[in-house]
Specification:
Blueprint (H helix, E strand, L loop, with lengths): L8 E3 L3 H4 E11 L3 H8 L3 E2 L4 E5 L2 E5 L2 E2 L16 E4 L2 H11 L4 E10 L5 E10 L2 H20 L1
Antiparallel strand pairs: 1-8, 2-7, 2-9, 3-6, 4-5, 5-7, 8-9
């Protein structure tokens, strides 16, 4: 009897539209038990979330994970700050790039790895200007027309 696990992928669709992503990293998340169960149900949102560097690592703020109803007496705060797990080399790359003007760390996708751990794909990017966004929309429209006729 094999256990089928549905693939959970919660995406931040605005991330690639608002930012030009230069580097991507897969970071682990520090979660509690009820939060993991709620994530497995797909009850989370990262569209309003943002990441920031601290003295001892990187954290995400504004990520909403719904309360798990059968958690018992465990206190659950849906939008608490959560720590991200990266190795020293990745943290050093991020901190060096963040010293430059205009860079930001954007949460892009929340998923479960093959190992069963919750992971967050984060991207380091710069904000796009309005003309860059219009160019992206135009190229998507042209590609849609090409696909329609071929």
């Amino acid at each position: 009897m094999s256990k089928k696990v549905k693939e959970i992928r919660i995406k931040n669709r605005k991330a690639t539209f608002e930012y030009a992503i230069e580097m991507e990293f897969d970071a682990g998340l520090v979660l509690t038990g009820p939060e993991v169960k709620s994530l497995r149900d797909g009850k989370a949102s990262i569209s309003e979330a943002y990441c920031f560097l601290t003295d001892n690592g990187i954290k995400i703020k504004g990520m909403h994970i719904a309360e798990f109803k059968n958690a018992g007496y465990v206190e659950q705060i849906p939008t608490r700050e959560r720590s991200l797990l990266l190795n020293k080399g990745e943290l050093k790359k991020l901190s060096n790039k963040m010293k430059d003007q205009g860079y930001t760390i954007v949460p892009m996708e929340l998923f479960f790895a093959d190992s069963g751990y919750a992971k967050l794909k984060i991207g380091l990017g710069r904000g796009k200007k309005n003309y860059d966004k219009r160019q992206d929309i135009k190229s998507k429209d042209v590609q849609r027309e090409i696909d329609r006729y071929s």
